[in-house]
Amino acid sequence: MSQSINFEGEAPVSFAAKLAASEAFKSMFREGMALVEVAAAYLDGHGREDARALARNESLAYSTESMRLTTRLMQIASWLLLQRAVNEGELTPDQAASEKRKVKLSQQDCASSPDMFARLPEALRDLVCESLRLQARIIHLDHLLYLAPDAPFAAPAVRPIEQQLARLRAAFG
């Protein structure tokens, strides 16, 4: 006995919405919040010692990168918290989209030149690179969730991690 399934009138299942409510999102959420904690602990602890040991130009680059890192992580945390609120039914997707306008997710790279970035403390460089990777994943998911289906999605020409690796190769190559 064969059954016929009628899909007429049913809305398609949004892969992005399923992903955003999945264990993968929960893992991304934990990763993002842990990164915020690790970065805060570093910048308030060993990072201060690392910064004091730097020459003037490197110290300025350290300050710039740490401010950009902090801003990026706050944007990431805000987006993750908004999406978690949607997943838990505290906000509708429309409410989240409205609130999300206050969160500026924009692809960034390092403000420092490649040779200057290579002279910064390794712990800061690692945090910057990890935050850029997470930000790129979140921006991609954000576009999938909140852009109109027919809106053009322009992937970054060069992924941030590729830029970082190229800078490191140039500095140490």
Short descriptors:
single chain; 173 residues; mainly alpha; Helicase, Ruva Protein, domain 3
Quick structural overview:
This protein has 173 residues and is mainly alpha-helical. It has eight helices and no strands.
Describe the fold and architecture.
- The chain has helices at residues 15-20, 23-44, 46-52, 56-87, 93-100, 114-118, 122-146, 160-172.
- With 173 residues, the protein is mainly α.
- The protein has one domain: Helicase, Ruva Protein, domain 3 (Orthogonal Bundle), CATH 1.10.8.930.
- α2 (23-44) packs antiparallel against α4, α4 (56-87) runs antiparallel to α5 (93-100) and α4 (56-87) packs parallel to α7 (122-146).
- The protein starts with 14 loop residues before the first helix and ends with a helix.
- The mean pLDDT is 81.
Count of distinct strands: 0
CATH names the topology as Helicase, Ruva Protein, domain 3
Average pLDDT works out at 81
Number of helices: 8
Our count of domains comes out at 1
CATH architecture: Orthogonal Bundle
- Helical residue percent band: 55-70%
Report the structural category: mainly alpha
